């Protein structure tokens, strides 16, 4: 992909073509998952980033070949769905209970001096509720429909794919937006001087959770969902 080509594709497409670009966008503070449908130019303008410098960094990726293990764009849809479940769904389900407990605990202990923690607690409680149902629907409805459409071309499975993805994309936007808000009100998970050990652990877990969510949503919004829709309409 040339520098000129970067002007014509979306952020999501750039990361789908070479997953290593995700690290460049993360460093620049550019959303490549829920915001992955915007062009590089639009993203840079919104963040006041020097687009020429960023394009040069992206172009430099061409000097080394991407790892085949991260070539998500060319994975079989069923295999990619299984990977998402076994890697990202399992991580989310394992981490949610701890973060619900910890965000509540630090809000109770430190909320008077740091009122933003009350909002963090409430936002994460909503994230927990939404993601639990979202993952369940993917595992029990959407992903089986994708596999059935691949196997038999079932018209019913294709209808399910279209309706589920239409709704689930909005759920991604909610979760991504809520984590963006948490990042913003905590000033990028900055720890105050009076932060206790639970405070420190909570912010580290929140940052890791956000990083994983970005990759998780990218794989679905920019790769799995578009390919599944194309399958359903084919």
Describe it for me?
- With 234 residues, this protein is an all-alpha fold.
- It folds into 2 domains: 66 residues, Orthogonal Bundle (SP0561-like); 159 residues.
- It contains 8 helices and no strands.
- The protein is globular, with a radius of gyration of 19 Å.
Tell me briefly what this model is.
By secondary structure, the protein is an all-alpha fold. The chain folds into two domains: 5-70, SP0561-like (Orthogonal Bundle); 75-233. It has helices at 11-17, 21-28, 40-47, 51-60, 77-110, 116-152, 155-185, 197-233.
Into which percentage range does the β-strand content fall?
under 5%
- How many β strands by DSSP? 0
Number of domains: 2
Q: Provide the succession of SSEs.
A: HHHHHHHH
Structural class: mainly alpha
Query: How far is it from the N-terminal to the C-terminal residue, by CA?
Result: 28 Å
Using only CA atoms, what is the Rg? 19 Å
If you average the pLDDT, what whole number results? 90
How does the overall form come out from the CA principal axes? globular
